[in-house]
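Notes on consecutive records. When two proteins share a document, each keeps its own sequence and its own token line. Never mix them. Below: protein one.
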Amino acid sequence: MTLKAILWDMDGTLIDSEPAHQKAFLKALDSLGVSVGFGTQKEMLGLSSVEVHQRVVELTGLNITLAQWRAEKWRHYQYCSRNITPLKNSQAILDAFSAKAIPMALVSNSSRDELELNLEVTNLQNYFQFIISRDDVENGKPSPEGYLAAAKALSIKANECLVIEDSLTGVKAGLAAKMTTLFHPESDSLAPLCPEGAILLRPDKDLNEWLLTAFNYPDENRKR
């Protein structure tokens, strides 16, 4: 089946936001007077605020609602997000495929507020025909709901969409949506965990080159 659209994850795929999320997470816990074990935040990579809240309550025993947790995390995240930047050559890739008129959507487990702030800080807000946040679906990743909603919004069949993800949670969502799913993790340590059915592109490999091949475009640089 010919690929006709790209459905992007955001955090860790297009932008380097994980340090900001980690700092905001730890600052929120500190302000609430609790802490969690070393590496716990990394274990939550790809989870939505709903799942993170559940895990925090389990680990700390905090009597805090989801709304209260999100408000506290958001308060710190607004400050921590100031230094977020696009990852590698992600902006150049978005420029190239926008010029080729390839429809693109963004599907994230982040809240709408976090997503819009990230896009504003990195100047990536104008590349996507549709944006699906965790607030726009009943079930976040690894549910396929967000990706299926994006395909429907673009009026493109699920099996004509390419999902690009850096987390196992997101890859599972793409596979569940019956979409071609590319696993392009930031750390090579995750490569052996690539789920069956996903395509692994290791961190040191060129995403733009892979995309040009997948969408049957010639690599102009290779011709020179």
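Protein two starts on the next line and is unrelated to protein one.
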Amino acid sequence: MTVHFYLVRHGQTQLNRWHRLQGITDSPLTNKGQKSARKLGQQLQHVRFAAAYTSDLDRTLKTAKLILQENIQPQIPIFQEPRLRELSFGEYEEGKNRQVLPHFLQQLGPLNIWKAMYHHHHAMELTNLFHTIDQTSQIEDAQQLSQRINYFMEDLGERYASRPTESNVLIVAHALILSVFIESLNGKVPRLLIKNAHVYRVDYDNSQFKLLAIPTSKLKEGKKD
């Protein structure tokens, strides 16, 4: 049976608001982040989720709970999964964007950064740039990050595809790892990656993923099975 995955980036956090890099470092949701999660929950309220999966970082768990509070069946199981954790930014964790960028320019040169940002798979290229300048051996490259999320999603897809009816599954994770997954399906993501509390739908059928657009006007209708 087809599995319908709803992929969501967590709501805005304090570190997001302060324009700092946030990978494996956790940070609480802002009021804006909580409000946008509830709003998305209202838009998805008629989708009957079989389960929700988040990373093992609290900002994703909190976002999932706020989304599900608005659902017609809020009491569904939520599972925390380390394989959904964001890329570690190593020594750059919590670094201010305006301080990290000059370092990138110095280490890599403006041409390499420009090529990465305007590449068709710019999330993957950005991941590789971080991996290139990493001195801590903590930062995965794009292939490693892509394999991590793809293997998890395939495992999950097979698990729910074996059920007798179609399933809707909520996934709440992070900007870079979700962007890399979407790019692996030849989908496009914004230049600055997936926005907070933004949703993508990916269907899993016959062991294949298919990325679907969800027009905002259609979100409220949801899928009711």
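For the record: The mean pLDDT is 92.
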